[in-house]
Write a structure and sequence with these properties.
Shape: globular
Helix content: 40-55%
Distance between the termini: 16 Å
Number of helices: 8
Oligomer: single chain
Number of domains: 1
CATH superfamily: YjeF N-terminal domain
CATH class: Alpha Beta
CATH topology: Rossmann fold
Radius of gyration: 16 Å
Number of strands: 7
Strand content: 15-25%
């Protein structure tokens, strides 16, 4: 299977919307459905605790979609922790976040300093953690609340599913940006990102599962270019 860089992944996404008229919301909906379906296969008990860690980008939006479907399916013990600070969600993520707020109050928005003890307590009894903190657009180092959250997740010993790519991993180079989620599984969309196989990437991604969602085949064959 062809492997692509972060740049190529963005071009595929952009052309799917501009050239093939596929709305970004529909791409996000399909990605989130795949995350939901995978979690449903792993966690059959709908009372089991699932903790989602989200940022503000499109992979967080994918997670919001998955959470919505889990709630509608009767999962009753979902905690959503969002590291947002003072920046806005992406456009599609904002829409799915607003929908989610109508379905659950179990959302914690972290705008200032993350309380490490509180977060550690939150995940102590969970069955699985879903990582949607940082996506393929990561540049530079991971610091502040994001680094704290990643370190807490890794220290917890809980199984982790990463959405699109483990937070902290460079999708193109396979380099680690200070801290990186060590995932048991990575659910990625369209085509696998080459950074998942280079340098330390394979050690942090776990099992890589690729879902084509609804990207046109011609775009995937061309890598978007």
């Amino acid at each position: 299977m062809k492997k692509i860089t972060a740049y190529e992944a963005k071009i595929i996404d952009k052309k799917a919307q501009s050239k093939f008229h596929i709305p970004g919301l529909l791409l996000m909906e399909n990605a989130g459905l795949e995350v939901y379906n995978r979690i449903k296969k792993i966690i059959a008990n709908k009372r089991s605790k699932i903790v989602f860690f989200c940022g503000r980008g499109n992979n967080a939006g994918d997670a919001f979609v998955a959470i919505r479907h889990l709630i509608n399916d009767g999962y009753t013990n979902i905690k959503v922790i969002i590291i947002k600070e003072d920046k806005d969600f992406s456009k599609e993520a904002e829409i799915n976040y607003k929908i989610l707020t109508k379905l659950t109050d179990n959302i914690k928005l972290i705008r200032k300093k993350l309380n490490s003890k509180e977060i550690s307590r939150e995940i102590k009894k969970c069955k699985i953690i879903v990582d949607a903190l940082l996506g393929i657009g990561l540049k530079g180092k991971v610091c502040g609340n994001f680094k704290k959250a990643i370190d807490i997740i890794n220290d917890s010993g809980k199984p982790v599913i990463s959405v699109d790519i483990p937070s902290g991993l460079n999708a193109t180079t396979g380099e680690i940006a200070t801290s990186c989620i060590k995932a048991n599984e990575t659910l990625t969309f369209g085509l696998p990102k080459i950074g998942c196989y280079k340098k330390k990437g394979s050690k942090f991604c776990g099992k890589i599962r690729v879902f084509p969602i609804i990207f046109p085949r011609v775009l995937l064959k061309q890598g978007g270019l």
